[in-house]
Amino acid sequence: MSREARLAAVLLMGIGMTAVLMGVYATDWGPWVESDSVEYLESARNLASGRGLITERASGRIVPLYSRPPFYPVLLALMIGLGIDPVVGARWLDVGLFVLVIALVVGATYRATGRPVVPVLCSLYLLSAPAVLDGFTGLMTEPVFLAIVACQIVALAAFLTTRRGWLLVLSSILAALSLMTRYAGAASLLVLALGILLWGPGRLSRRILLSIGSMVLAVAPFLVWTSYLARSGLTPGVYDLTLVDARQALVTARASLATAYWSWLP
After folding, report:
1. How far apart (Å, rounded) are the C-alpha atoms in residues 237 and 241?
2. Cβ neighbours of 13 (radius 10 Å)
3. How far apart are CA 160 and CA 193, in angstroms?
4. Quick check: pTM over 0.85?
5. Residues of the chain scoring pLDDT < 70
6. List of E strands, the chain
7. What DSSP character marks residue 239?
8. What residues does each domain of the chain span?
9. pLDDT at 252
């Protein structure tokens, strides 16, 4: 091992320990919450008590969880079933996933470049970006979602490099979990399909078949969830958007995008 590699290894170990300390310190009073967090906790406690993934509206009406995907509440329900306070469990899950994402970035960038300094710089960027730390300190779906997406991309890249079928199955399962964690996870399915079509093994006909098979596996849990909600006359998500609202949302999104880019700076 070269001197540069040894120094990089020491620095990366220090960065990993710092990431743990930052996550623990930032959540000293618990992870931050929003209105979504209340719905996640309520549905998780109902599921753990045997009532199912349901929420109670202000009117007293009991409805299945439909406005948000079910995977994160299921994780919280598993914590409750194991005797773990879901707020405490979510805190330590955030810390662990923060370190995991940094580790994935380190491994991916080193494999892509072969230069020890590159993963060090990338991990330092993640560690020092306020938006990243903020995303990994809440009782929200962001930590789980980002970790799943990172794992899915790494698994897909590994399949395209090694052509091992189990990696494609893993990438498809992770794409399914991303969609079941946040509806924005639909983008993971698009990445999966395009990755196989553009860089997959074999002739175009084989790549098309692999893409279709992977997409079927990735979208199957969401279709089951949609069918379950349809029995109650519900659909996944909340859709109430007119053309005027869409234009205003686009203006707001542009401003938010600029703010997000600015917040990425250390």
Report:
1. 12
2. 10
3. 12
4. yes
5. 1, 238-251, 253, 256-257, 260-261, 264-266
6. 54-56, 62-64
7. -
8. 3-256
9. 72
